[in-house]
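Researcher: Here's a chain I'd like modeled. Treat it as a single chain, no partners, no ligands.
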Amino acid sequence: MSLPPSRRRLLALPLLALCAAALPSVSIAQAAWPARPIRIVVAYPPGGISDNIARALAERLSLQLSTSVVVENRAGAGGSIGMDLVAKAAPDGYTVGFSSISPLALNPHLGKLPYDPLKDIAPVASVMYSPVVLLATPAFEGKDFKDVLAAAKAKPGSVRWSTSGLATVGHIVLEQVQQGAKVEFTHVPYKGGGQQLTDALGGQFEVISTNLSGAVMPHIKSGKLRPLAVGAPARVDTLPQVPTFAELGLTPANLSSLFGVFAPAKTPDAVLVRLNTEINLALQTPDLRKRLLSADNVPTAGSAAEFARQIALESDNNARIIKAAQIKVD
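Model: Modeled as a single isolated chain. Structure tokens:
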């Protein structure tokens, strides 16, 4: 004889209670996350575009998660100092990092790091990419990128190409162009972008590769710096007439700076999934998208697995080009 539904439910209650009691305590802790403030470690100095976007993301996540989300800047060593702090933090979801992928995909090929990029860090979600733009300075009389290649082929080393430093994304773009187009440039590396931009306006070299930003756009609009190509998955909305390196036949050079959120390895999967979901939701909000796009950064989002795949792909490409070009950082 079958029991009525109400009776079956009553008999099931003790079994459900027993199952709940058998669950490990970590599951209860995960279900309660977040129960206290979350810290976002930004691997760059205050005031820059990455810092501004990280703070805007923190504000949005604070609203969504109903808890404080605070930003802490730990700049230095191309992002490696901030990433090391994240790698060594407790894997509980209360410390995460905001950085470009360079500390995982570029820096490991240039020297020994205090963390293992594969074992100590968990990619959570991509947030944005910052296009790399190649600009002609007043010292270059050519009209477009083809003229740059033509000048470099006619007289190897005559075209001076400036980057913000050795082994930066802009430097990798330069090396990829040299290899792909079979040309030779004279590399002019700086230690950061401030003096580099000043010297570009003064015509101290012919071309400059740099991230597209609010500091650069006014000089493009005035005509003092002329855009020749961009490294980005697609043409940039603010520069629709400028082709990507891929369109110019140099797909390996079509690089941009990809930024995202990272967590310590061994952070519970449930927390990582929740973080990924909340970040993707934040990137859909009009206010955050406007902040990104107004600074010429493009929102990305997506799964943690896809973000990890992008990091692995760029790491492999960087390893190859760094070895081929014999790039070394003192």
